[in-house]
Amino acid sequence: MKITVLPGDGVGPEVTREALRVLNAVAAVHSIEIETTEALIGGCAIREAGSPLPDATISAFEGADAVLLGAVGDPSYDHLLPNQRPEIGLLKMRQHLGGFANLRPSKAYESLIDSSPLRREVFEGTDLLIVRELLGGLYFGTPRGFGDDNNSAFNTMSYSVDEVERVARVAFELARGRRKRVTSVDKANVLETSQLWRKTVTKIAADYPDVELDHLFVDACAMHLVTNPTRFDVVLTENLFGDILSDEAAVLTGSLGMLASATIGGQIDLFEPVHGSAPDIAGKNIANPIGAIASAAMLLRHTAGNADAAATIENAIDRALAEGYRTADIASGGQSISTTAMGELIARYAAGNSASQLASQGN
Ligand code: IPM
Ligand code: MN
């Protein structure tokens, strides 16, 4: 497996280091050979190479099976136009890699249920997967820009039938391996793109008679996520709706720091935690590395096709949480451990070592 590693900005390098630690530990156990190359993206790339996605980074993608990304975003560039900011590096990379289906799972960890902003009886049993279309809609539609006088601005939301079909198929395929239900989310009461979306998803559903399809308007979906999250299995939606809903779904778990994502369907798969660069806590060794570590598990499942190795990581995460280990974001007033300590713990568990062995080694 050739992996291009992009630690990025803020807490990105800290959490990526732990993801690699765990990945390497599991690779050793499952005899997976991993070769990594590091490159720059985002604010650090602007600073060191003058561009949020330098040519050297694009060259580093050549021959790679997957990209593992930390985070992108740096408040010192907040004054820049959208097309100069660190985030544009991420968007250009997504286009370059070609993955159009962004998978963002969100589930209730039994041991963390009391960290959720939702009541236990509402949240318990939640296990959903957002499939966010990643290469279309308002993010990339043209024309876009500011009016001549700078007193107006505009963006374009557009989708083709092909763009909707290909991501819908990914959602239905994934639903087959889950609870066989797809909820397609749109704003078909207002937007033409959403009417096309709904019609196209309904057409594709005919190829998947074993999967149940329902439709929700995005505002209603936002509401159901907090009132009845267990109603969802696979949530299929366009780019911006998916961006917003996936933060909402993520925070239900107790912390945005827990959530992983995979982007598939293109030439090179991309894996990144859902959280951002969190500049306020960067460099303090307190960020939650679980989102990044779980992204490495998704890499093993989706790119390496090694479900066992992925489960080894996921079980190690479950175990660390079940035993009460917490980073500061989920410690809710209790004891917390550092980013590094959490990564080391999960790496040892994934490699088959026990907590007592870990303790005896002075960690
Ligand atoms: C995400 C992020 C990005 C997005 C930003 C950083 C461009 O919020 O991955 O959800 O909007 O897609
Ligand atoms: Mn987002």
SSE diagram, text form:
Layout: E1 2-8, H1 12-29, E2 35-38, H2 43-49, H3 55-60, E3 66-71, H4 86-97, E4 101-107, H5 120-123, E5 127-133, E6 145-146, E7 153-154, H6 161-176, E8 181-186, H7 192-205, E9 212-217, H8 218-227, E10 234-237, H9 239-252, E11 260-264, E12 269-273, H10 290-302, H11 307-322, H12 339-350, H13 355-360
Parallel strand pairs: 1-2, 1-3, 3-12, 5-10, 8-9, 8-10
Antiparallel strand pairs: 4-5, 4-11, 6-7, 11-12
The protein binds 3-isopropylmalic acid and manganese (II) ion.
Tell me what you see in this structure.
The protein is of the alpha/beta class. The protein folds into 2 domains: 1-103 and 258-363, Isopropylmalate Dehydrogenase (3-Layer(aba) Sandwich), CATH 3.40.718; 127-251, Isopropylmalate Dehydrogenase. The chain contains 13 helices and 12 strands. Helix 1 (12-29) crosses helix 10 (290-302) and helix 8 (218-227) runs parallel beside helix 9. The two termini are 30 Å apart. Residues 72-73, 87, 90-91, 243 line the site of 3-isopropylmalic acid (IPM).
Q: Fraction of residues in helices?
A: 40-55%
Give the beta-strand count. Answer: 12
CATH architecture of the largest domain: 3-Layer(aba) Sandwich
Strand order of the largest sheet: 2-1-3-12-11-4-5-10-8-9
- Average pLDDT value? 94
Major sheet: size, sense and barrel closure? 10 strands, mixed
Termini separation (Å)?
30 Å
Radius of gyration: 20 Å
How much of the sequence lies in strands comes to 15-25%
The CATH superfamily of the largest domain is known as Isopropylmalate Dehydrogenase
Q: Structural class, from helix and strand content?
A: alpha/beta
What is the helix tally? 13
Taken together, the total number of domains comes to 2
Which runs of at least 5 residues are low in confidence (pLDDT < 50)?
354-363
Q: Which compounds are bound in this model?
A: 3-isopropylmalic acid, manganese (II) ion
CATH top level of the largest domain is Alpha Beta
| Dominant shape | globular
CATH topology assignment of the largest domain? Isopropylmalate Dehydrogenase
Order of helices and strands: EHEHHEHEHEEEHEHEHEHEEHHHH
